[in-house]
Write a structure and sequence with these properties.
alpha+beta; OB fold (Dihydrolipoamide Acetyltransferase, E2P); BirA Bifunctional Protein, domain 2; about 575 residues; 17 helices; eight-stranded mixed sheet; homodimer; Gyrase A, domain 2; five-stranded mixed barrel; 3 domains; 23 strands
Chain lengths: ~575, ~575
């Protein structure tokens, strides 16, 4: 080793030792005769003190040092006169007698500090410098620790990590695939996996019993802030289990992670039907920290000649604690916020419960004090509260109110990054109607098992069939989802039929899986966690980008290595492809 | 859970318990009135006994069962009358009172037994059934255990696992890339990584200090039995270290794996210069279990009018213990083996040291007893030994003799799969001459640091420059290799120049790395292990195929899922590519 210690470990108990440290110059102060240098590495920061008065070589070296120079310093540990108790090494300093410059550094294009002055694009181009900053490095160390703990927990429960292939087969079902032309099989392509779904099911058919993998997956979708073309899943599958076993084991995994990585104890996770989640929160991933359950007011609002309510399929609202004093301006602003195309509401009704006990609504023309009192009772409202009510088509209005609820939660600072509210959402519908294609799609994926008692509905009311499918939600973010799978050829065929596959298409694309089901497939099910998302929640971040070492931007580009890029004509010739740009 | 126990855990201490097992029917014997069924899962095998005489339902179920049916059986644990002490559950059986068929099974296309009757192709097509066989499943469980132990060891030494991107940039240096067309950037491509080399170096520039990753890598090369288009590396890098530190830490990793996974203690690994390895074994990955070091005989053979030796650049041989009794026919056969185009020798000289102490060679016409006695002394030969001698151009003849040595080792059964002889080969040349392109190539890769004392030779004798590069070899198989890297822009530029890059080419392809070296890059180095290869050595296999769950065949095809395959015209249109087949 070029060093005897790291920059994070020397303390008062090491006084008098002669040590050698290596690291980056964080800052340097020339006090005339004495130079103080903070040297930094992954483990911490240590102060060097150089007597530049007496040692000319040292003086010259000290003068040539700039920020981010890489140095090797040897000297004796002594107690500091002015201590910094905020860092573990803050009581000592090294009286450096020898400094070697291991590598010089140009002035970095932005500050390598916890708070930097670098813009998004500059930091992306110099990602290797951005990664030097503590917050980002800490995120990646957190991620490492989480991955280690995931493996420790699952290994302890007899799960085997099996690597499934990255070069697989393109299937038109689901999101868009990335494809890879095959040189050895001209005209043919591999696809990168969107998930190892079929492989993990085959491993169950193979008797592996308990499988997991922390694995890269790929989706060629248009990107948003929290989406990346390549992302990481904790992918899991078990045989001979019921849904209850999966919920139990993976709730255990999540609690294990919170305990070991963040020191947080979580109680048993509450569970909620999909139907209830939609009815009470207008979302299949409710943030239950916020309270503000929906209250349906159809019974209390109809028949009073207020057309908007009378004509609405659903009248529904939330009670916002302590916001009765919202000004007209604030309420107008909220209404405008709701009317933006992203939300699409047509308007908002409010009812103030003044701190003096009076009730005042924006529809006083139609509803008297008795009505408002009934509303307040339905909302469980108290003086000081503000009731916000929307009306319209059930599905739409629930979504709109769900957005409003999140917005009010944010305004009331109820979305604290250090409070964690996990939730299981269960009993998802098997199918969802797709307006665009005019047919049903699998809500989870085509391998999800319908609830046995609902199978009869497949022909008559496909949208009402419930699946043995479940999502884990934390703080309004879906961090995992899974299902009990179909393990029977006949049922799998029936599912493909209902999803609009011809028998030939189903056989061509998923024949290997249906064939496998005929050779002794056990009942099985599983779950997959979005590992990037899970890490970002643990790190208290809104985006997954800073829990990924080398993320891509919204155009799918890596600005640092400048990819994607053109390739040589000869490469395309070998692959027997051509671009048509 | 559908079961109370697995098929591998019930023993004599569980007598009397009522249990439920799930698994696959391994075999079933109807003894008239009693049916015995072996039910199997990943954990083991348990015998069920069914009283089919008294229970008609049970009789009917038992009769309908076939091999590989998936069943759930409930009953009481009782002591067996005829015990099988070879398996942990062999002292007990379950008196099953209830059998439920969870899934039927067609007759499998080959035997699901340790020794199967299925051919290569059939087993590949039904890989999910082949994976049910104990030897293959055990390989994958071994692999899981090895990956866990790698992580445990490296995590314990402060290494951080960081995921590097899979969608990167194509570089013409090295092997052929797999490429991925970018839909969002038409006409441009990503490439799949051949290794995370540049990213791990950037992580060192970022101050990560100790990095590792168990990671998929990709090479679009023509395939051999032990190559796959996608393969897995244990990829590692460290900063502020010397070569000695890397050898120490990763020798430690390997010893940790042998100890924890195979219970084998390995002593300190011997080290050998590349030059010595070539001189003594004709290989940069010698199997040192075999002995038979090369003995050079130029001094003892020249000037005796034997043209073949007189004209040879090198006369060199090995002494094969105890083979003096080889018949003329056996020796002729060996000579023919050497003359095959794969080896390309022109002939072989032998000298027998008879058990009676007499020496007899195939060149007695030219060499008298004194000569042969001198040869025997040089070989350290004893009565009963056989000396085999080749002559020719140094590099060629060393390779040929190296092959002969391995062949003799195999014939003498010296290549035992349970004896492990690790070795470090160090001081590799930096460059090797490529006949085809008529220029020097990096022997390891372009980022490898030359030995400082040899840098001056770069201009005058490039082939003699040694690198700070090292390989770990076990039993004649290269399982890992690495180097100390260049961390300085000027030296890296010089290297690219010597490798035939123009300055523009170097900047276009690796500018990001050379730029990074200007912002404070620490001295660093690393190593990468071929994880598939390492697993196959631990499993005692010659090929890596059976330590991979879903391998591809020699044409890069997965016969089970039938990929690569054609994709839809619409997919190609979206990607703005076209095939030219």
């Amino acid at each position: 080793m070029l060093r005897t210690h790291t920059c994070g470990e020397l303390t008062i108990s090491d006084l008098g030792q002669t040590v050698t440290l290596c690291g980056w110059v964080q800052k340097s102060r020339d006090l005339g005769g004495m130079t103080f240098i903070d040297v930094r590495d992954r483990y911490g920061l240590t102060q060097l003190v150089l007597n530049t008065d007496t040692d000319a070589t040292l003086r010259e070296t000290a003068r040539s040092l700039g920020r981010e120079f890489v140095i090797k310093a040897t000297g004796q540990v002594q107690e500091r006169t002015s201590k910094n108790l905020k860092i573990p090494t803050g009581e000592i300093e090294i009286v450096a007698t020898d400094i070697e410059i291991l590598n010089a550094a140009k002035i970095p294009p932005f500050l390598i500090e916890d708070e930097t002055d670098g813009g998004e694009e500059l930091r992306a181009k110099f990602r290797y410098l951005d990664l030097r900053r503590n917050p980002i490095r800490n995120n990646l160390m957190l991620r490492h620790k989480m991955a280690q703990e995931v493996r420790k927990y699952l290994d302890g429960l007899n799960f085997i990590e099996v690597e499934t292939p990255v070069l697989i087969k393109s299937t038109p079902e689901g999101a868009r695939d990335f494809v890879v032309p095959s040189r050895m099989n001209p005209g043919e392509f591999y696809a990168l996996p969107q998930s190892p779904q079929t492989f993990k099911q085959l491993l169950m058919v193979s008797g592996f019993d308990r499988y997991f993998q922390i694995v890269k997956c790929f989706r060629d979708e248009d990107l948003r802030a929290d989406r990346q073309p390549e992302f990481t899943q904790i992918d899991c599958e078990m045989a001979f289990i019921t849904q209850e076993d999966i919920l139990h084991i993976f709730e255990g995994l999540t609690r294990h992670l919170f305990k070991t990585v963040k020191g947080i104890h979580l109680d048993k996770f509450p569970r909620m039907d999909y139907a209830d989640a939609m009815r009470l929160y207008g979302s299949d991933k409710p943030d239950i920290r916020l309270g503000m359950e929906f209250v349906e007011l159809n019974d209390l609002t109809k028949g009073k000649n207020f057309g908007i309510f009378d004509n609405a399929e659903l009248v529904v609202g939330i009670n916002v604690k302590g916001c009765a004093e919202y000004t007209r301006k604030q309420i107008d602003e909220l209404t405008e916020w709701l009317k933006r195309p992203q939300i699409g509401a047509t308007g908002m009704i409010y009812c103030r419960y003044g701190s003096d006990g009076t009730l005042k609504s924006s529809v006083d023309k139609f509803y008297g004090e008795d009505d408002l009192t009934n509303w307040a009772a339905a909302f469980n409202a108290e003086p000081g509260d503000l009731m916000l009510i929307l009306a319209g088509k059930t599905d739409k209005v629930r979504k709109q109110l769900g957005e409003l609820r999140l917005e009010m939660g944010a305004r009331l600072s109820l979305r604290d990054k250090n409070t964690f509210a996990p939730l299981w959402v269960i009993d998802f519908p098997l199918l969802e109607w797709d307006e665009e294609t005019g047919r049903y799609h699998a809500m989870h994926h085509p391998f999800t098992s319908p609830k046995p008692e609902d199978i009869a509905l497949l022909d008559t009311a496909p949208g009402e069939v419930r699946a043995n499918a479940y999502d884990m939600v934390i703080n309004g973010v879906e961090i995992g989802g899974g299902s009990i799978r179909i393990h029977d050829r006949a049922l799998q065929s029936l599912m493909f039929k209902h999803l609009g596959f011809t028998q030939q298409e189903a056989q061509k694309q998923f024949g290997f899986l249906m064939d496998a089901f005929e050779y002794g497939a056990p009942p099985h099910g599983g779950i997959a966690f979005g590992f990037d998302r899970l890490c970002s929640i643990f790190a208290g971040l809104d985006s997954i980008r800073d829990v990924i070492a080398f993320p891509k931007n919204n155009s799918g580009r890596d600005l640092m290595i400048d990819t994607p890029s053109t390739i040589a004509k000869s490469q395309m010739n070998e692959l027997k492809i051509r671009t048509t740009v």
